[in-house]
Design goal:
Elements: H1 19-33, H2 45-65, H3 82-85, H4 89-102, H5 109-121, E1 126-130, H6 133-143, E2 151-155, H7 160-168, E3 172-176, H8 187-192, E4 198-201, H9 213-221, E5 226-230, E6 238-239, E7 242-243, E8 250-254, E9 268-272, H10 275-284, E10 289-291, E11 294-295, H11 306-315, H12 319-337, E12 345-347, E13 361-365, H13 373-382, H14 411-419, E14 420-423, H15 431-444
Parallel strand pairs: 2-3, 2-4, 4-5, 5-8
Antiparallel strand pairs: 1-9, 6-7, 8-9, 10-11, 12-13, 13-14
Helix pairs in contact: 1-5, 2-4, 4-11, 5-11, 6-7, 6-10, 12-15
The structure holds pyridoxal-5'-phosphate (PLP).
Pyridoxal-5'-phosphate binds next to helix 6 and helix 7.
């Protein structure tokens, strides 16, 4: 498969002409005003050469380990990052080399460029790069005016990072059950969980599918609740004319390496249309300093590294193509798995059509199946097919979070944790590999 470079003008609600230019100008000003001096390190030529050749060596080692084409490796891993990195390895090497050359490591040019580009791709005005998605939630909630003791509704079947973000903002996570078909937060259950202390809802766009924007807006607006999107798994997902991240007051993204847009380490971003909110997160991520050594907030050190931003800048133009290829793979799975529905193999429902970006392709192994999930997972593993479970234990049954609920409180989330299985899913996953996975499932069911 060839990677096409794409432009990403998106015709969603929040796009305004001129936003990108305005953001770029602001990013430049911000860099000048960030208070962090970024001297170009005057390396001796031999030192620079030495570093550049190390980068090149490392990347050519990566190249050597890559399969020559997208054709299937002997074993099916749940994710294969090499396939997406191979065609752009030299672009990335050049970018990294330039940054080493400039010594531009913290709050640098690539970060400003990536913040502008990613926010624009999501149809939002401002992006603030932070150390990880968890920090994007924690700092973002603080900047939204969430106060200690405020209650925030979140789905019981999310990754624990959503809870950690809420707790770091000193708010109280209130778990809510999910819809058993989509695995997304159930807004009827959310309504029942509202108290006088409820200030916000965090819809988690799980597996790459957005919670219905229309239903969310209706839910939040009439109750005066803040919508803060956890879009860690939903880069450029869309639904009902909205892009993930453009719906609420602010949104958090993760660039963990295996995400649809992943860095070469940890990374995250807070995006918002609210200039003051963005500025507050910029301050909080940088020791609470608006300008150098003047600390107006008790902040932290949570900046997205310039090197990571540079890698993400190279990858961003390919994201739509990669997402489309995931959707192609999901469509093939759906077609082949359809006859197995009556045998208890049921894909998580897609209610957002082509807007689902399939961070994960998840099936349920229901009571109708002749085998249980764990047995199926073991049989697939024996055939060299790696799978995952996202997630095996609901948040309220985790040892650290037992105060958030009792067994039986969130029955759909608990059932899903026992039934779900994530099949191999990544751009470049071949139809032949998908057929092999489905045939192995069929054999395991004895059909
Ligand atoms: C739903 C969800 N929220 C938040 C996070 C946290 O992101 P990070 O790992 O970058 O801190 C993740 C990461 O996996 C996630 O999947």
């Amino acid at each position: 498969m060839r990677c096409e470079k794409l432009s990403y003008p998106i015709l969603y609600k929040k796009e305004e002409s001129g936003v990108r230019r305005k953001n770029e100008e602001e990013s430049e000003i911000r860099n000048q005003e960030s208070g962090i001096e970024l001297p170009t390190i005057d390396y001796q030529l031999s030192t620079v050469n030495c570093q550049l050749s190390t980068v090149n060596n490392q990347l050519s080692t990566i190249n050597c380990q890559l399969p020559p084409t997208y054709e299937q490796p002997a074993q099916s891993t749940i994710v294969n990052l090499s396939l997406q990195h191979q065609p752009i390895a030299s672009q990335i090497a050049e970018t990294i080399a330039k940054i080493i050359d400039r010594g531009d490591f913290i709050l640098g040019r690539s970060l400003a460029e990536f913040e502008t580009a990613f926010a624009a791709a999501c149809g939002v005005k401002y992006g603030v790069g932070v150390a990880c998605g968890t920090d994007a939630i924690a700092l973002g909630l603080q900047a939204c005016g969430i106060n200690p003791g405020d209650e925030i509704l979140i789905p019981a079947n999310t990754f624990v990072a959503t809870i950690i973000g809420v707790l770091q903002a000193k708010a109280i996570p209130i778990l809510v059950d999910c819809n058993p078909d989509t695995a997304l937060i159930d807004l009827t259950a959310a309504t029942a969980a509202i108290t006088s202390k409820t200030k916000a809802i965090i819809p988690v766009h799980l597996y790459g599918q957005m919670v219905s924007p229309r239903e969310l807006l209706e839910f939040a607006e009439c109750r005066n609740l803040i919508i803060f999107e956890d879009a860690a798994q939903a880069h450029l997902a869309a639904s009902e004319g909205y892009r993930a991240g453009s719906l609420g007051k602010a949104a958090a993204f993760s660039f963990y390496p295996s995400k649809n847009l992943g860095s070469f380490g940890d990374g995250g971003m807070l995006i918002t249309d609210d200039r003051n909110l963005a500025e507050k997160v910029r301050t909080l991520r940088n020791y609470g300093a608006k300008s150098k050594y003047l600390h107006s907030e008790i902040g932290s050190n949570s900046r997205l590294d310039n090197l990571q931003a540079a890698v993400l800048n190279v990858k961003l133009p390919y994201l739509e193509t990669w997402n489309r290829d995931r959707a192609r793979a999901a469509h093939h799975y759906n077609t082949l798995l359809a006859p197995l529905k009556s045998l208890g193999i049921v894909p998580i429902e897609n209610r957002s059509g082509s807007g689902h970006i399939y961070h994960l392709y998840v099936i349920r192994i229901t009571e109708e199946s002749s085998i249980d999930r764990n047995t199926l997972q073991q049989q697939l593993a024996r055939e060299g097919i790696q799978t995952g479970i996202h997630y095996p234990v609901p948040c309220h049954l985790q040892p650290a979070y037992q105060n958030l609920g009792n067994p039986g409180d969130f029955p759909h989330a608990e059932t899903l944790c026992r039934q779900i299985l994530s099949l191999p899913m990544y751009p470049g996953l071949s139809n032949t590999q998908i057929e092999l996975v489905v045939r192995t499932i069929e054999r395991s069911l004895n059909c």
